[in-house]
Structure formats: C-alpha cells, structure tokens
Amino acid sequence: MTIYEKLQEIHDKAMKQLNSATNRDELYQMKVQYLGKTGEFTEIMKEMAKLSKEEKPVFGKKVNEVKQALEQIHDQCFERLKKNEILEQMKSEYLDLSLPSTAKGVGAAHPVYLVTEEIVQVLSRLGYSLRLGPSIESDYYNFEALNIPKNHPARDMQDTFFVDDTQVLRTHTSPIQIHALEKEELPLRILGTGPVFRCDSDISHLPNFHQIEGMCVDKKISMADLKGTISFFVREFFGSELKTRFRPSFFPFTEPSAEVDCQCPICKGAGCSLCKQTGWIEIGGAGLMNPKVLQAAKIKYPEWTGFAFGFGIERMAVIKYGIPDIRLLPENNLSFLKQF
Ligand code: DAH
Predict the structure, then answer these.
(1) Distance 198 CA to ligand 1 centre (A)
(2) Which CATH architecture has domain 111-337?
(3) Which residue from 253, 283, 305, 315 has its CB within 8 A of the most atoms of ligand 1, so it is best to mutate?
(4) How far apart are CA 214 and CA 122, in angstroms?
C-alpha cells in the first residue's frame, strides 16, 4: 500500500467514524484519535521521511487538505450533535403549563368559620357557651314566641322562605333563645349560631347567611350590662381602641332595642369607603329581653331579666378583613378564601 493509499484509507475511515458519532464525547475521542498529537496523522507524517525531496511538499499539501476536510466534517458533526442534544434535553424537560396540577390542594378555614370561632372564643371568656338549633323552624319559634304575631307588620322585617303553612327556613338565630329558655336552668349565658335564610339578595344581602346570637338571663340585668358586654366584645374582636355606640331602634323581642355600631376598624373612625365616610359601622341589633318573650317561655318576670344581641357573621367578616363585596364569601373561590 502506498503512502497515498494509506492517507486515503485514514481519510475514508475517519469520515465514516466522525459521521457515525452519536454524541459529542464520542466525537471528541475520534478527533483525538485522528487529529491529536499521537494520532494517525502524526504516524503517517513520520513515514513522509521516506519520500523524495520533490514528493515531500506534494504529499504534505495532500495531508493538510485531508486534515482540513476532516476538521470541517468534525465541526459540522459537532454542531449537529450539539443541536440534537439540546433538542433531546428540551423534549425530556418539556413542561406543559396548561395541564391541571396533580398536587393535592390544601384547604383553608372559611372566613365565616374563623369569625364564628373567634366570637365564640371571646364571649366564652364572659361565661357564654354555644347552642345550635334546626334550620327549619316552626312559625312559633321563629316568630310567635319572639313576640312577632301573625299579620303583624314586624314580619315584613324578615322576608321569609316558607316550607309549608306552619314551618319556615329560620330567618334568624333568635329561635335558639327560645329553645334554651324552655329547656335550660337559669341563669343562662348562651350563644346561638348557624345559617339563616331570607328571600333577599343584593350587594350587601345574601339569601343564605350566618348569624350569631347572644342571650344573658339573670337577676337585675340592665342596659349597662348589655353595653359593657358588647363594648368588651368589640375591643377584643376588632381592636382595643374602638368605641361602641347604641342607637335607639325596634325589635319585637327586645324593649328597649338598639342598633349597635362600632368605630370602623378599617379607618379607626376617620372615615373610609367601608363606613361610607361616617367613621361608624353597624354590626347588629340588641336590647333588653321583652317581658313578653320571657313570659311566653314561662320565665318569672321581673324576677329574671335579660338582654340579647345578634350579629351577621358575613358582615363581621367583611368589616374585620375589609372584604369589598359580601358575595365573595359564598363563592368558594379558593384563591380568595386562602387569604384568611
Ligand atoms: N334577630 C335579629 C335579626 O335577625 C337580630 C337581633 C336583634 C337579635 C336584636 C337579637 C336582638 O337577639 O336582641 O335582624
């Protein structure tokens, strides 16, 4: 085999191998094998010594041409392999961001639940304990026993869902007071909570919302006890510096009755959009228990007297957390609910 044939053979072998390399590591090994310091070209250059003076430059030129051709092929292969590797990597790391997550969502306590828990916790420190009652009540417990007789205009205060002629979806948690008065020993300090229903729905009213109710029946209960209890509650629940005020009002089951306001917890009384720039915000109703309610439940009046109060829980949540629209609460949108 002539030295030229040998050169051709190295060229052909190298071409074939370079083109068959499957990754850049392999390619590098081949580059070393052919073009490196101890590679096949170095060997053939040694043999060049045997050539004549005239032939040496001719052969040397040929060797350089072959080397250049191989280097070119090497570079092309290198680029191709690099591209492939990147494509492979992109394929293996492909992330479909539109796929639904497989992670299990962690739930969160609903603000209505959080507010209820906190109200119960604050008032339990004054000796109150929680009672529940049915969502479907008889006309008697929802209205009559609370001094709201049939055909009385006071029934219009609460737009009612009727189940049938004698039963309603309770319009408030006040019936829980009556159940306790009928069944339990005096003195009593109770809270009643749960869902209530009214056919009424707009930006600040929900047809199904939650209330919490307090009732204290004891000896010599006065308006001062009621005011003290609610002021304590407001300071503990909303913030220590906030004042409470009573405005005269009317509820059939209390006499006298009051609408309860507290200084707006968002602006601390300075005026903002939540309190409509008044600095005050209504949180519920209250009053001394109407003797008619006590007597209907066979409680000896005036030996025993009492006060009661009722708050809307969604409303409390809106005020406490500065929620812009009460209708967000029953929506069950997790990204909203998880903020609390
Ligand atoms: N039951 C009333 C309502 O739903 C709220 C209320 C007012 C409850 C005064 C009370 C009370 O216990 O004393 O509008």
Answers:
(1) 14
(2) 2-Layer Sandwich (3.30)
(3) 253
(4) 12
